[in-house]
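Usage example:
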Amino acid sequence: MATVIIPTPLRKFTNNTAKLDVKAENIQQTVNELTLNFPDLKKHLLDEQGQIRSFVNIFVGNDDIRDLQQERTEVRTDTVISIIPAIAGGYA
Amino acid sequence: MSNNNPVTFSKEELARYSRHIIIPDFGLEAQQKLKAAKVLIVGSGGLGSPSLLYLAAAGVGTIGIVDFDVVDDSNLQRQVLFGVEAIGKPKVLEAKKRLEALNPHINIILHNTQLTSQNALDILKDYDVVADGTDNFPTRYLVNDAAVLLGKPNIYASIFQFEGQVSVFNYRNAKGEPGPNYRDLYPTPPPPGLVPSCAEGGVLGVLPGIIGSLQALETIKVITGVGETLSGRFYIFDALNFESRTFNISRRKDNPLNGENPTITKLIDYEQFCGMKAVEKPVKEITPEELYNWQVKGEAYQLIDVREQSEYDIVNIGAELIPLATVSANAERISRDVKVVVHCKMGGRSAKAIRELEEKFGFENLYNLKGGILGWIDAVQPELTKY
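Running the assembly step on the lines above writes:
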């Protein structure tokens, strides 16, 4: 099972779970499984067309899926998947 | 930098920087580069506090600070540049005082203003490096775009609650090729309201201390050329689980600033870009001065206040109170025969009330009091209580 690391801003949609195991062969299946199990995550990960939002980055291991095969990027049982949304704090 | 570097140090400076100079891979040459460098810090808040303290202590010769805010007591939980005596005073002035006390050998330049599309290029152009410690997406994209258009490296750091991010954007390597920038990492910002700000979502006070220090570290590396910068890499720190990860990032061909077909060649309206002006229909406005003239002339009008009872009790200007949440239910109380001026504290809620009444009931005689009751107090009745 691959492991998905959920960033702190999105943990409120995953019952405060930081790491989730998914049975998936690629990123598309990973996202499908996550949004099926945690429907509130959907609007944060996907736009109205079902595409991964452009302010949410997904990394497989150390690499951005945009530099791999996007949603078709393969996932193995030992893969660590990181979801990193844009955050803008620092001043306030 | 060449061997005939003209930068020299006084005896006091040499003593101060001796712990740098004796590091074999740093030495006098790196210290000279620091002294010759001009760094602009955008925002002297949570991230700016530690990065300014360390960069000043380290001997960066010229440090510019952009900030328009004053110190508030809610800042002191994390903005370690400021003490209790600074509350209510302009941040840039307090920062300068503290940094000059820390290191009298450096030059601090103040920009007591908000960074905007109009002034950003002019402010940034005199600096070698920019470090972004702001708290909102429009300014993040503004700093990024200005840095890319001017060819300056942008040391990026951002925090939220327990999570921090650091990278070095637009850094030219030895071959002169620029590294990725913010638009390569995040092509577009989240729509307003989807991601809360630190003011709404909170931040653990020590987190900007950690992340702002990393920002200072990368700034020093970019200036001196010592070590490997985070250019092309993206560092994440999760304070809650104490985990850090570093990802690889790269340039995108469709980057509108410096991709294959650039479409952004000058600074744009960043609030609009971030969706903050979307779908908001403009409403008719009246200034406090115009309203005062109506009063003087005895013109017929109705004045509605859409604030809450508790605010009305603090100060009011004799309007009929219909709180925003109840305007639709009270639409029949609003005149269709005379002009109606709607006000709140600053003008935001009254604009919402006007839009709601226009859309649902077809009103055409509603005017928003510009600046709300605070604007009125400033312009017409300064003796009233402001809150």
